[in-house]
Amino acid sequence: MGEDHTIRAVEHLRVNAVYGKKKHFNAADRKEQYNTCIGISLIVANAVIASNLVYMIISEIHTFGMVIGIIGLIATVLAVVQAFFNYSRTAEQHRMVATKYLHIANECSRMKAYHQDGILSADELRERLDTLAQEYELITEDAVGLSTNQDDYKKAQEGFEDGEERYTPGECREE
Asked: pLDDT band at residue 73, thresholds of 50, 70 and 90?
């Protein structure tokens, strides 16, 4: 069969797309967790400030003023961090990129199946591979501003090792 290398390229693109998908879903989860932690901290800090302010207004003891000031400062810093990093929007963007990578991976699986069933010729397979490779590159370029970290990648690898995704050694091999 003259298209063995093309089939391996399809498999390789699929594996790369799945890694991209998993990395970006992991990054989205991480950013969502940051957003939740900061949001809960803000809620707690504001509740403490509000309850202590009421207490200070009612009583004549003003020893809590310093504590309230510190909690207020922390709440302000958390609000600024949350607004600056905009974790909820970033998580959404990571999920959109991950979904695009998932589309590439699924399309690779379909292409391979169609070819193996004889529905897709070797030439058609190559054309569709080229198109998908270009789409993959565009997605990767669009994702440049969305950082993932080493932990996101390690979690993706662990997912593969734990059987979340199943691949033969040939599918994961660099060509």
From this structure: confident
* Mean pLDDT, rounded, of the chain: 86
CA atoms within 13 A on the CB side of 173: 8
Beta strand extents in 38-123 (DSSP E only): none
CA 124 – CA 66 distance, rounded (Å):
72
pTM of the model: 0.78
End-to-end CA distance of the chain: 18
Give the type of residue at 142: D
Q: Which of 33, 30, 67, 35 is nearest to 48 (CA)?
A: 67
Q: What angle do CA 120, 121, 123 make, to 5 degrees?
A: 125
Q: Cβ(24)–Cβ(101) under 8 Å? A: yes
Q: How far apart are CA 8 and CA 69, in angstroms?
A: 62
What tokens were used for 78? Answer: 């958390």
Q: Which residues of 154-163 are buried (b: 16+ CB within 10 A; e: fewer)?
A: ebbeebbeee
